[in-house]
C-alpha cells in the first residue's frame, strides 16, 4: 500500500507596489539591504598564514584583552611601523 503524500502549499506571493499603496499609511516598508552603501574604514586587506601555536597565542591574548583579534593585530602592526 502506497501512502499518499501531503501536498506542499503555494509560496506566498510578494506584495506588489499596488498592494503597498492600497495599504495606506499602515503598510510596512520593505527592508532594503544597505551592505553596499556602508563605507569601509579600511581600504586594504592583508592575508597572513600563521602556524597553529601563533594563532592560538594571538587568539588567547585578544580574549584576555577583551578586544577583537583583528583590532589587536592592527595595534601591534601600527606599533612596529610607528604610525
Automatic annotation (TrEMBL):
Residues 1-13 have a biased composition (Basic residues). One of its GO terms (biological process) is regulation of DNA-templated transcription. InterPro entries: Arc_rbn_hlx_hlx, Ribbon_hlx_hlx. Residues 1-28 are annotated as: Disordered. This is Uncharacterized protein. It comes from Adonisia turfae CCMR0082.
Amino acid at each position: 500500500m502506497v501512502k499518499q503524500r501531503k501536498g506542499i502549499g503555494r509560496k506566498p506571493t510578494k506584495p506588489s507596489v499596488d498592494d503597498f499603496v492600497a495599504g495606506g499609511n499602515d503598510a510596512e516598508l520593505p527592508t532594503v539591504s544597505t551592505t553596499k552603501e556602508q563605507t569601509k574604514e579600511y581600504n586594504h586587506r592583508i592575508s597572513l598564514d600563521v602556524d597553529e601555536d601563533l594563532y592560538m597565542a594571538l587568539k588567547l591574548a585578544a580574549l584576555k584583552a577583551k578586544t577583537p583579534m583583528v583590532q589587536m593585530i592592527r595595534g601591534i602592526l601600527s606599533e612596529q611601523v610607528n604610525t
